[in-house]
Structure formats: structure tokens, C-alpha cells
TrEMBL record:
Gene3D superfamilies with a match to the protein in the record: NAD(P)-binding Rossmann-like Domain
Organism (species): Stigmatella aurantiaca (strain DW4/3-1)
This protein's record includes keyword Cell membrane: no
Name of the protein in question: Oxidoreductase, short chain dehydrogenase/reductase family
Keyword vocabulary terms for this entry: Oxidoreductase
Domain Ketoreductase: 8-194
Length: 297
């Protein structure tokens, strides 16, 4: 059983993101229609031209919508109906994750995180799944994060959202088992090289696990094509993610503190001073302050 990608209609949320763009590129030679959802569709006009140059028979529809806002999913569904499009595949790649200690975030930021990472994906699936079941053919690919296996200070709400979707999709997969609908949860690790966009950005701390966006999208789509329930793209990332659940919780907390220290260190380099201050407060007593030589080693 495979998702109906070939000659099908595919809805991609988060199409402005690095991975969203790569999904569109790699699906362009297979799909009949791509519907790309993004709050800033003007950023996708060049991509749309590129996709149609790759495949002149491809239909590309750009929908302006920010699914982190209430009622935007219903507007997307109305737009699809107006274009007479019934997606056979949903690629859910939209998400937000403000990096700050939970108590320092505004409740509006928390609500936006939960809306974009939980409510909107579930609502889209709820709207699209009945037609997939009726056709006995469909596919849902949700792109979360390897954070779902980690305890990460500064990303509490986002981590909770990823865990929620992981558990939800495992249960939903059992509900639709044997129906012809493929459901895959992808949990990538670091994607891309920040220094390609900003030469002053700090060197990646886990180069062995870091994939380019093209590599990551390719591995995720290959797993989706094989109807894999869970995809950890990249050999090193998959090995670590498989190991993490077996570690004692105190050790996983220690790893979370270490990750917090790393991100706090990066924050002092100019990426997020607020995050750096907040995360430093979460570190255990005696931990070197961000930027100290002890933490750089």
C-alpha cells in the first residue's frame, strides 16, 4: 500500500518553510496538482514558476493562509472547494515554536504554538480523512520533530505539541488500518546549515546528524512511499532517536540541560539574548555561563 502521490492532488502546509519547499520540488514531477499553503504566498511565486518549468502539466495553486490563526483551516477548505480540488494527500509541514522559557512567553504565543502544531493539523486531518476513507485511498504525512523524544527547556510547549501528534497519529493509524490510507509521522533532526544563510552563525554542534533540506525531504518521502509509520531521516539521527526512549529519565533530563546550555551559548552570539538569559536560569548551579570557556569545550 502506497499513498496516492502519483498523478494526485497534494496539499502542503508550511510551504514557505525550507522543508515545505523541498517537498514541493520533489513531488512536482509526480503530482497532478500541488496546493501550497503559506501566509506569504508572494514568497512562493518564484517556486511556482520553477515547479511548472520542471513539469509543464503540473497545476500549482497558491493559498494565502496562516494556520496558526483560528478559522484559517476552514478558509483553506473553502478555497479548495472553490477550485474543485479534493486532496488525496496531506503533507502537514507547518509549525511554530517560540524559543523561550514557558513562564516568560505571552499566553498569545503559547496559544499560537498549540494552534499551529496541534489544532490546525488535527482539523485538516478531520476535514480530509472522510473523503480518503470513502475512496479507500489517501495519505497523511505529518512533519514534527525529533524534539518529541527530548526534554528541552525553552521549548516546552512545542515539545508537548510534538508528543501529542506522535501519540495521536499512532492511534489514528490503528483506526484506519486496512482502509487504504497511509499515515506517517516524520521526526527530523537538524536540517540545513545555518552558516549558508549567515556566515557569522555558530558552527553546527551535531554535523553528523545534520542533513540538507533536500536530503531530509527525500528520506521522509521515501519512508512515506513505503508506508512507514515513523520516519527518523538520517542514519545517525535514527539511531539516537531509537536509543533515547531506553535511557533513564534522569539521563534524559541531563541531556536536556546540556541542550539548553548549547542554545543559551548560541543566544549570546546574537541569535536570542532573551532565550540565553532564560535558559541560563534553568541550568543547574555551577554550570558555566553561556560563552564561558568551560561550556565551549
Amino acid at each position: 500500500m502506497r499513498p496516492p502521490i502519483d498523478f494526485g492532488s497534494i496539499l502542503i502546509t508550511g510551504a514557505c518553510s525550507v522543508l515545505g519547499r523541498e517537498f514541493a520540488r520533489q513531488l512536482s514531477h509526480r503530482a497532478r496538482t500541488l496546493v501550497l499553503v503559506c501566509p506569504h504566498v508572494e514568497r512562493l511565486e518564484t517556486l511556482s514558476e520553477e515547479l511548472q518549468a520542471r513539469n509543464p502539466t503540473l497545476g500549482v495553486v497558491l493559498l494565502r493562509a496562516d494556520i496558526a490563526l483560528p478559522n484559517e483551516v476552514d478558509r483553506v477548505m473553502n478555497e479548495l472547494a472553490s477550485h474543485l480540488i479534493t486532496p488525496g494527500v496531506l503533507v502537514s509541514a507547518a509549525g511554530v515554536g517560540p524559543q523561550a522559557p514557558f513562564a516568560q512567553q505571552s499566553w498569545e504565543d503559547v496559544q499560537r504554538t498549540l494552534q499551529a502544531n496541534i489544532v490546525a493539523p488535527l482539523l485538516l486531518m478531520h476535514r480530509l480523512l472522510p473523503s480518503m476513507l470513502a475512496r479507500k485511498s489517501g495519505g497523511i504525512l505529518h512533519v514534527g520533530s525529533g524534539n518529541s523524544q527530548l526534554f528541552l527547556p525553552g521549548l516546552a510547549a512545542a515539545s508537548a505539541a510534538h508528543r501529542c501528534l506522535d501519540g495521536f497519529l499512532e492511534s489514528l493509524r490503528l483506526e484506519v488500518e486496512g482502509s487504504g490510507v497511509v499515515i506517517t509521522y516524520a521526526a527530523p533532526g537538524p536540517v540545513g546549515d545555518p552558516r549558508r544563510e549567515d556566515p557569522a552563525a555558530p558552527e553546527a554542534h551535531a554535523p553528523f546528524f545534520r542533513l540538507s533540506a533536500a536530503q531530509c525531504a527525500r528520506k521522509i518521502l521515501a519512508g512515506f512511499d513505503r508506508a512507514e509509520p515513523l520516519v527518523y531521516p538520517g542514519t545517525g539521527h535514527r539511531w539516537v532517536m531509537g536509543l533515547l526512549p531506553m535511557l533513564p529519565r534522569p539521563l534524559r533530563r541531563a541531556l536536556g540541560r546540556f541542550a539548553a546550555g548549547r542554545r543559551a551559548e548560541e543566544g549570546t552570539g546574537g541569535s536570542s539574548p532573551r532565550l540565553a538569559r532564560g535558559l541560563q536560569a534553568l541550568l543547574p548551579p555551577g554550570t558555566p555561563s553561556p560563552g564561558a570557556t568551560g561550556l565551549n569545550r
